[in-house]
Amino acid sequence: MKCYIVCVALGLSIISCLGSGIIRDQKQLKAMDLNEAIEALMYVESNNNPNSINYKENAIGVLQIRKSALEDLNRYYNKNYTLNDFYGEKGVALSKWAVIHYARMYGADNNDLESMVRIWNGGPDGHTQMCTINHWEKVKKVYLSRN
Fold first, then answer.
1. Which of 115, 110, 61 is nearest to 89 (CA)?
2. DSSP helix/strand/coil, 110
3. Per-10-residue mean pLDDT, the chain, length 147
4. Which of 2, 123, 139, 146 is 20 to 30 A from 30 via CA?
5. What is the CATH number of the domain that holds 22?
6. Which domain holds residue 32?
7. Whether the model pTM is above 0.85
8. C-alpha to C-alpha distance for 39 and 80, rounded to whole angstroms
9. Can you tell me the distance from the alpha carbon of 43 to that of 114, in angstroms, rounded to the nearest whole number?
């Protein structure tokens, strides 16, 4: 099991062993490292651009966090982050924290990377929505092309 320290510089107390997860694909079961999966998600969300802004969806940063997800995270974890906190290089580690913990809030764990990606894409019940499957397939394709 690999351990990643994701936000130490930010002083967040959420650090844990992230381990690895499994791609739940009928055709190809493959161990998928959480950190590498998040890297693939960052590529799909913003082409790894921490300064990315999507004005149409009001999403910001390398993982394109939206106000609704931010409000959920702030409420659940008793934080006061703003969208600006996720912008630029300073927001990359915080964005990684956000995607992991947002998915956890809604039932995904570090071993369920498909649900994590789909919840990030589609909200609290994203892992049950058909419209998030294409997003998961894009992330999985990027991940597999790198490994």
1. 61
2. coil
3. 32 34 40 86 98 96 97 97 96 96 89 92 95 96 90
4. 123
5. 1.10.530.10
6. 8-146
7. no
8. 25
9. 16
